[in-house]
TrEMBL record:
Keywords: Transferase
KW DNA damage (keyword) present: no
Signal sequence residues: none
Protein's UniProt name: 4'-phosphopantetheinyl transferase superfamily protein
Native species: Hymenobacter terrestris
Lineage: Bacteria, Pseudomonadati, Bacteroidota, Cytophagia, Cytophagales
Length: 217
């Protein structure tokens, strides 16, 4: 079973990584409630994205079982954010990229977010769409840093799950020196408020970056 790691990130939160190697039919067998997910399985996905979708739910179920004896399937709210039906005290966030799947489950958190990204030129090519001018200057020509900026902003977005946020104007990060692991300071700017978050990051492999945040209740 390709459960790569299961790591406590706080007293009440677990981060899991899954190395995606098995076919879809094997992942269906690992789901705690296959019938529930069959009714919600997104049509039209290619084989890789279907396997990512399934593995994320297998992983989330495994993390939940580490925290409670009352496992329950995942649902999605109108904004697409996953949640455990009947367990409002638990937050969950899912992400996948290439052959890696990540999940974060926390008890008693106001919100959680995680994102994993394959380091590739795409983020650098699209920088003007999601980075402010100051962030573009800070990222320079570092492709990995561009991906880390993108991942951190995805994590910020998932924390709040509010449609219509403009990444380059409302989800901002302080300049930073990229290391193998560290903490970034992110800001959510709304019409009448500003919220600050500490976003943790590391590289699970040399080719990927992962970010996460647990917003305490």
């Amino acid at each position: 079973m390709p459960l790569h790691s299961l790591s406590p990130v706080s007293a009440e939160a677990l981060l899991g990584l899954w190395h995606l190697t098995e076919p879809a039919d094997k992942l269906w067998e690992l789901l705690p409630s296959p019938a529930h997910y069959l009714a919600r399985f997104p049509d039209g996905r290619d084989e890789l994205r279907a396997r990512q979708w399934l593995a994320a739910r297998v992983l989330a179920g495994q993390l939940l079982r580490e925290l409670t004896d009352a496992p329950t399937p995942l649902e999605n709210d109108p904004n697409g954010r996953p949640y455990f039906s009947g367990l409002p005290a638990f937050g969950v966030s899912l992400s996948h990229s290439g052959e890696w799947v990540a999940a974060l489950v926390a008890r008693g958190a106001a919100a959680v977010g995680t994102d994993i990204e394959l380091i590739r030129p795409k983020a650098q090519q699209l920088a003007r769409r999601f980075l402010s001018e100051a962030e573009q200057t800070d990222a320079g020509n570092d492709a990995a840093k561009h991906c880390l900026y993108w991942s951190a902003k995805e994590t910020l977005y998932k924390l709040h799950s509010r449609r219509g946020l403009v990444f380059k104007e409302q989800l901002l990060l302080n300049p930073f020196e990229r290391r193998e692991a560290g903490v970034l300071t992110g800001h959510l700017l709304l019409e009448n408020s500003r919220r600050q978050h500490q976003i943790h990051y590391f590289q699970p492999t040399p080719d990927y970056v992962l970010t996460y945040c647990v917003d305490a209740a």
